[in-house]
Specification:
alpha+beta, eight-stranded antiparallel β-sheet, 3 helices, 20% strand
Length: 172
């Protein structure tokens, strides 16, 4: 019996670019040293070394992130939302922060609240001042954190609705 022929797969330009960047990076690299000196806290901002193997629209390379669930210990996994200087006007889950926690890079920063990542602590790096000296972690404004929480929840709402149908929330 002959199997039906399938049309060839075609790659989009962004996928080709990501594959070319990733081809120069070893698949399994040495785990970087842990730079964190203590457990992370909700609202703290760090640099995150995302994998260069990610495909668009996933985040890759270095980006600022805000911790939305810190580890109890510095070696625990951390849940973060990436920050970007790219305007997110067309993203209903994008939120413009009141103040850029890394003002030297751009005048404004946006939280991309529909991109929630769990990362190893070795991916998180402290921000540095203009002389390269590490700084204590910046903390976002409480109003910014509240809006990020609302937008993360809204981005994940269909999951929560499925997990806890109306009327079942009390049982959770």
């Amino acid at each position: 019996m002959d199997t039906p022929k399938r049309p060839p797969l075609t790659a989009k330009p962004a996928m080709i670019d990501a594959a070319q960047r990733a081809s120069h990076v070893p698949a399994i690299g040495k785990k970087p040293t842990l730079e964190l000196r203590s457990a992370t806290r909700v609202g703290q901002v760090y640099w995150c070394a995302f994998s260069p193997h990610n495909w668009p629209p996933e985040f890759d390379d270095q980006h600022l992130v805000v911790v939305i669930r810190g580890g109890r210990k510095e070696r625990d996994a951390h849940v973060v939302v990436p920050l970007t200087k790219q305007p997110q006007h067309d993203n209903p889950h994008g939120y413009r922060l009141k103040r850029n926690p890394n003002p030297g890079s751009a005048s404004e920063a946006w939280a991309v609240c529909n991109h929630v990542y769990t990362v190893a602590p070795e991916r998180l790096k402290l921000l540095r001042d203009s002389k390269g000296v590490t700084k204590n972690p910046e903390r976002l404004d409480p109003d910014d954190l509240g809006e990020i929480a609302r937008r993360v929840f809204r981005a994940l709402k269909s999951f929560f609705d499925h997990a806890y149908p109306p009327g079942d929330a009390e049982k959770a």
